């Protein structure tokens, strides 16, 4: 069984202190949209939403009536602490986790499914898109290196892992004394293989103030694209 | 004197063949907005707009009446060819060039000025933003490396260079037999220093269909931010 873990415990400092999870997109809270995409994926048997302790009431009011959803309060400060907290709540028959940012409301159910399918083969998979920008490595305000853009991949979520392998990876990374903010990075640091799955550019994370109107505009475009894709595949 | 070189000769394959330069943003063509930002910068003495030969008429109609602007047709296929073409048209007293994508209409005049100021010190400077996404190096569908995100910088334009140094850099890079799509990359490959100047996330390049409505939404926000910034700095 696959459990989705939706991380909604960020502190929204880059959003001016407003909790971005509750901001409205197309009339619905961002977090509700993120969760709904996982409700469309049949293989997902439960959805754990990790929120800050002080947001638990509001989050449970918003999501508590949805099937499969459990809202889990978290005292942790970091993404890794949120994750560890969530792992403790997993349904015992869970053998795979799909970790997703609560602030990525434009995720498409078919991209979740593609990422799950890849992780079944390799053990770990991350959704993302090819980098559009030239990315440079900068130290002290000076460019030190420009990696080959054609090899660069901007990681999004979901990131999907076989649970046994993920637990093993966390253990190995802790032994090395590393603290990583990126789950696929934990897998990689443990020497395990992660597949890169190509998704859509509109699966942005609502992080800074200009992201919300941009997401609004992309949302308006999305249903049409989804229709087109379904047509192309002959459904 | 500083010459702006606005590159508008892309083939728009990722936009479904439509010439993105003429798409409307807030009621005005994208290219016109990109050019207007440079008209606001006093130090810029001329603006060369490089377009495809077949677009010359339409581009000249759009921009021909603006002060300082010259529309230059280009037969070249690559960015580097567009650049070389433009260099041949530079006003003889030009000693610095500011290269900008015609498809980045949300550039702010103050960010152009900041980049120019940095290039005066180091010889070369590139505007951009800190990476928000985790970026991974992927080969054959598998993640091979995750660089430290805190050091990653997404390059935008303008990229500003002292003209002598730029010509020297192009010469050195050609001797090495490299063909680079990124002007700052040419500078770096020649062993010259490039400063990374932090700008704004909304200075996106209109590349794929979802970019235009997103830019539209960001444009609606932009004047307010500009006001805020001016307030903060006490003007």
3D structure, described in words:
Two copies of one chain form a homodimer. Chain A is α/β, with parallel strands linked by helices. Chain A contains seven helices and eleven strands. In chain A, the strands form three sheets. In chain A, strands 5-4-1-6-10-7-11 form a seven-stranded mixed beta sheet. In chain A, helix 5 (163-175) crosses helix 6 (183-189). The longest helix of chain A has 22 residues, at 211-232. In chain A, 48% of the residues are buried. The interface between A and B is large, with 48 and 48 residues. Strand 8 of chain A pairs antiparallel with strand 10 (152-162) of chain B, so a sheet runs across the interface.
Query: Helix tally of chain A?
Result: 7
CA radius of gyration of chain A is: 18 Å
Quaternary organisation: homodimer
Topology order of chain A in helix (H) and strand (E) letters = EEEHEHEHEHEEEEHHEH
Average pLDDT of chain A, rounded to a whole number, is 88
Strand line-up of the largest beta sheet of chain A: 5-4-1-6-10-7-11
């Amino acid at each position: 069984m696959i459990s989705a873990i939706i991380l909604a415990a960020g502190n929204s400092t880059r959003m001016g202190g407003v909790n971005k999870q509750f901001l409205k997109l197309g009339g619905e809270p961002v977090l509700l949209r993120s969760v709904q995409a996982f409700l469309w994926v049949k293989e997902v048997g439960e959805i754990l939403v990790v929120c800050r302790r002080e947001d638990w009431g509001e989050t449970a009011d918003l999501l508590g009536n949805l099937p499969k959803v459990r809202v889990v309060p978290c005292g942790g400060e970091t993404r890794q602490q949120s994750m560890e907290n969530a792992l403790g709540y997993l349904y015992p028959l869970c053998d795979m986790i799909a970790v997703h940012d609560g602030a990525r409301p434009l995720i498409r159910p078919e991209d979740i499914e593609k990422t799950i399918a890849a992780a079944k083969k390799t053990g770990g998979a991350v959704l993302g898109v090819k980098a559009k920008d030239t990315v440079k490595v900068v130290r002290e305000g000076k460019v030190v290196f420009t990696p080959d853009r054609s090899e660069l991949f901007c990681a999004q979520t979901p990131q999907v892992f076989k649970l046994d392998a993920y637990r093993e990876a966390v253990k190995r990374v802790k032994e090395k004394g590393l603290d990583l903010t990126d789950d696929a990075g934990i897998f990689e640091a443990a020497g395990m293989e992660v597949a890169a799955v190509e998704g859509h550019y509109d699966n942005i994370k609502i992080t800074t103030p200009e992201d919300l109107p941009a997401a609004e505009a992309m949302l308006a475009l999305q249903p049409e694209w989804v229709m087109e894709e379904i047509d192309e595949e002959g459904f």
